[in-house]
Structures are given as structure tokens and as C-alpha cells.
Design a protein that fits this description.
Length: about 500
């Protein structure tokens, strides 16, 4: 791999973890010394800068089990993240916007990458080492500029202090670095990671791309083509840094074989498979929803996974929910039945900036209607370059009964106000809130137990459409792969959670 790397900067610092859970929940811990706070609108699209008051640190945290993992090979969890709920001034810690992106401000000069460069590309199933040129992704001619992200302060390149206290420098945690390589995964909030030659991005959700901005200059970003388009279009990253990798194609980068596999999460999301020269294989799931089809993938059948970096969002037996197809069929059935009784119904689907597309697409296909979205969402959907979406979009809300709104707009009062905009055409609203957090052990897989919330002419259904794996899906995936080691990447903020998940892993791998 001939892609130039950035010059060595001062020691980087670690940002707090913002876990997106495809929009369902957030665990926010701010450990940045300074950062650009990019303000997003309610749907997660970049809008304007918002200064964020940052808490003072409570000291440097080191993993007591990171070394143990590599020394003894036992099951290992992520680094312990410090938990705080108040500022050093005594004020309650606030999060102004749940879709906040946190990044770094640095004033350090780095070398710019060349536009040329190449990766070694090996076709699937081939052992050829023939080198093929791969041009850097450049979608400037395809995606128009969508505006500027305004910086909220001038960076001096020096460490800042908050409330008179010195900030603590934290480096990239071990679980974001792939052992035996110079690669990191979803590690953009740590500045220039020492000796990192390739930064991998699993998908375009804020907790994974946090730290990326138009100022990025630390090295090449490897991701799927769609994720690359979104990174350029929404975050204004210089396209010369974006290295799109096609799915199901083996690439050789710095001597490491790398393959992206569809993660069954949001559009463009990828599982990342690494094979080292010594035969060791790592699989980083990013965020994913495991399914039976993954068990047929040739890499999983023919090569043992030695280390599995696992999305453990729902690694708890209480999280049981139906398959995606069952939920989509249920949503279509409810919609048809409701429209038969109330023909002048406006159907609303809640969604995040990226994800949940299959819910409103299923309704659109079943009813043969267009999908009304705002300009920001339309721009995102057009970037998918998929006729299933682009051919169904509608900018005039009066021309279709199917509308897509932000999840935050599904409150009863908000929907009542929204209905007034279309009162000449519609008299009621049927809304769907698709999220995995909706279900628990009380409901399980029985969709018939779902009870709508009704208030006058507004009816809302919470449906268990998740883009993360359920507990049983995680179990089946792990039992199929049978990895040597498992590193959970979500809900690892305390020892009890880590030990509980490790106990599940041990049970799953018995025998």
C-alpha cells in the first residue's frame, strides 16, 4: 500500500464514547480536550455549530484487562469508560442534541495524500497477487456541495483546560486497534493514531464516524462506496482520503487481506474481515444484525475467526424480537387494515438520518404509493444510488399518504400539528416507531401483543424493527463462528456487564 501517512503530530486525545445504537440510546462520556461540535438537525443532518460545555476529567483510565486479553487469551471486554453526570462546576451534564458529532480541533500541518496511489485488489476466490490500480473516491462531480460546517472557535493546536482544570490526554483504546496490523476501526475521534496507516469506518452512524470533518488529514479512510459518498457529502471530508472498498472483494492493504461483508444494519454498513500473513483472522462487526444467510458466506465457512469484535447492543436474554421480514409484513398488514377503516389516514414512519429505510419502503411497495421526505433526507436517499428509493421519492406531501419524519417528531402533539398542515386531505394519522428497544421479555416474538397508543385521531405503533442482533441471533452467530476470543464493543461501561456477557459467551461456546 503506497498511500502516504500523516506526519507525526503531538499525542492525540480520546473523545468520549457516543454510542448510537442506531439512534435508540446514547452513552456519552466527553474526554476531549478540545473539539469541533458539529450541530445536526433532528434527523442527524449537519446544520450548524453548537458549542458544547465540556466536563472536566476524573483522571486517566487504563484497562486492567487489556493486557490480560493478549497475555492469557481469555474472553475480553472493552476499556472501562468513566461515567459522569455533572460538570466540575456542579452543573448537570447536558446533551444539547442526541445526534451530536464530536470531533477534534487541531492546528498541525500534515502531508496531503496523493490522488493516485493504489490498493492491491484480489478478486473473490482468487489467490492472485496481481496489483490493480484503485483510484481514490471522488464524488465531487456527483454530489453537489450541501453547505459549509461553520467552525465555532479558533484552534491553537494546544491542549485546552475547562473550569481551570488540566485536560487528560487519552490515546486510542486497544479494542479499536487490530493486533498485528497498523489498522484501526471506527477510531476517528482520537486524532492521528500513532503508527496507524489505515482508518476503517464500518458505517455512517455518528458514534462510529465521530471525529471526521473537512479538516481530516490523518490518513486514508477505508469504507464501503456508499459510506464514502456520505462521508464526503455530509462531513465534507476531502475525497482524496476516501478509499472505497467494494463488498465481497478481497483487497490487500499493507500486506493484510481485507474483505467487507454486508452487515445487515444500515445502508453501506460492513462487517470487516482481516486476514494476517500468519493466517490469523479477525472479524469486526461494527454494528450488525446477524442472520442465517451470513452462515453461508465463504470466508466464515473456510476460515476460522480467531478474534471476534462483537456488537453486543442486545446481549441480554430479555431482548427477543421477530425477524425483519415478520415485522415488515406486520406493518403492512396494520396499515392496510387501518386504511380500510379510515381511508383519509396519513401514514407516518419515524426514521433516523440513516437506517429504517426498509420500513417505509415496504409500505410504499405494498400500497403502490410514493414516499414523502424532506430535502435533507432526499439528498441522503439519492446518494444510495438505488432506484428502489430514488424512483419512489416525493417532495410534495399532498401527493402521497406516506410520509417519513424524524423519530423525535412522533410525539402525539407534534403529529397533531403536522396533521394540520394537510387537513384538507387527511383526517387522522397512523404512525410507526421502529426500534429494537420497544420489545422486552414481556412481548418476545409475538407481534400480536403489540398495543397501539391512541389519542383522538392519532394512533402510534412501536414496532420491534431493529438493525442490531437480538440475543438469540448473537448466540447463533457466535456458535456458528466459534471464535477463539470475543471482544464485546457495546455496553461495557462496568465490570458487571462485562462479566455477564463473558458468561454468555462461555455458555455459547461449551462443547
Amino acid at each position: 500500500m503506497s498511500f502516504p501517512t500523516a506526519a507525526s503530530p503531538p499525542a492525540a486525545s480520546e473523545a468520549g464514547t457516543l454510542h448510537h445504537d442506531d439512534g435508540d440510546s446514547y452513552n456519552v462520556n466527553d474526554d476531549d480536550a478540545s473539539f469541533d461540535a458539529i450541530r445536526l438537525d433532528d434527523e442527524g443532518f449537519p446544520s450548524q455549530q453548537l458549542p458544547i460545555e465540556s466536563p472536566s476529567p476524573n483522571g486517566s483510565e487504563k484497562s486492567s484487562f487489556a493486557a490480560d486479553f493478549y497475555r492469557c487469551g481469555s474472553d475480553c471486554s472493552s476499556l472501562l469508560t468513566p461515567e459522569r453526570d455533572s460538570l466540575s462546576s456542579g452543573k448537570k451534564l447536558k446533551q444539547a442534541n442526541l445526534f451530536q458529532i464530536w470531533g477534534f480541533k487541531r492546528n498541525v500541518e500534515f502531508e496531503s495524500p496523493n490522488q493516485g496511489g493504489y490498493c492491491d485488489v484480489v478478486g473473490e476466490g482468487s489467490v492472485s497477487s496481481e496489483k490493480k490500480s484503485v483510484k481514490r473516491g471522488n464524488w465531487g462531480s456527483i454530489l453537489r456541495d450541501t453547505g459549509k460546517v461553520v467552525e465555532n472557535s479558533k484552534s491553537t493546536g494546544k491542549r485546552k483546560s475547562f473550569h481551570g482544570e488540566k485536560r487528560v490526554t487519552r490515546s486510542c483504546p486497544f479494542y479499536k486497534k487490530m493486533p498485528g496490523t497498523n489498522f484501526t476501526v471506527d477510531a476517528f475521534r482520537y486524532g492521528c493514531v500513532e503508527e496507524c496507516s489505515a482508518y476503517f469506518l464500518s458505517h455512517f452512524h455518528a458514534d462510529h464516524y465521530g471525529g471526521l470533518s473537512k479538516k481530516w488529514s490523518h490518513g486514508p479512510i477505508y469504507c464501503s462506496p456508499l459510506t464514502g459518498r456520505l462521508v464526503q457529502m455530509c462531513l465534507y471530508v476531502n475525497p482524496s482520503y476516501i478509499c472505497p472498498l467494494e463488498f465481497d472483494t478481497e483487497y490487500v492493504i499493507d500486506g493484510i487481506k481485507v474483505t467487507l461483508i454486508d452487515a445487515n444494519h444500515c445502508p453501506g454498513a460492513a462487517l470487516i474481515h482481516f486476514e494476517l500473513p500468519n493466517g490469523q483472522c479477525y472479524l469486526h462487526t461494527g454494528d450488525f444484525r446477524a442472520c442465517k444467510l451470513m452462515q453461508d458466506y465463504h470466508l466464515f465457512v473456510n476460515k476460522r475467526v480467531n478474534v471476534l469484535y462483537l456488537d453486543t447492543t442486545y446481549c441480554n436474554p430479555k431482548y427477543k424480537f421477530p425477524s425483519k421480514d415478520d415485522v415488515l409484513n406486520y406493518v403492512v398488514k396494520i396499515t392496510n387494515n387501518h386504511l380500510k377503516k379510515y381511508p383519509r389516514t396519513l401514514v407516518v414512519v419515524g426514521a433516523y438520518s440513516i437506517g429504517k429505510e426498509c420500513v417505509y419502503l415496504a409500505i410504499s411497495k405494498a400500497l403502490g404509493v410514493k414516499i414523502h421526505v424532506n430535502a435533507s433526507r432526499r439528498r441522503i436517499l439519492l446518494a444510495y444510488d438505488c432506484p428502489d428509493y430514488s424512483d419512489r421519492l416525493c417532495t410534495n406531501g399532498n401527493n402521497t399518504l406516506l410520509h417519513v419524519l424524524p423519530m423525535s417528531s412522533l410525539r402525539i402533539e407534534t403529529l397533531k400539528e403536522y396533521l394540520k398542515t394537510y387537513k384538507e386531505q387527511f383526517t387522522s394519522v397512523l404512525a410507526f416507531r421502529p426500534t429494537g428497544w420497544t420489545f422486552s421479555e414481556k412481548i418476545g416474538n409475538d407481534l400480536a401483543l403489540i398495543k397501539p397508543v391512541s389519542n383522538g385521531n392519532i394512533t402510534t405503533y412501536g414496532v420491534p424493527y431493529s438493525e442490531h442482533s437480538s440475543f438469540t441471533e448473537l448466540r447463533d452467530f457466535v456458535q456458528f463462528l466459534r471464535p477463539d476470543k470475543i471482544i464485546p464493543t457495546v455496553n461495557v461501561g462496568n465490570a458487571a456487564n462485562r462479566e455477564k456477557m463473558q458468561s454468555y459467551f462461555r455458555d455459547w461456546l461449551k462443547g
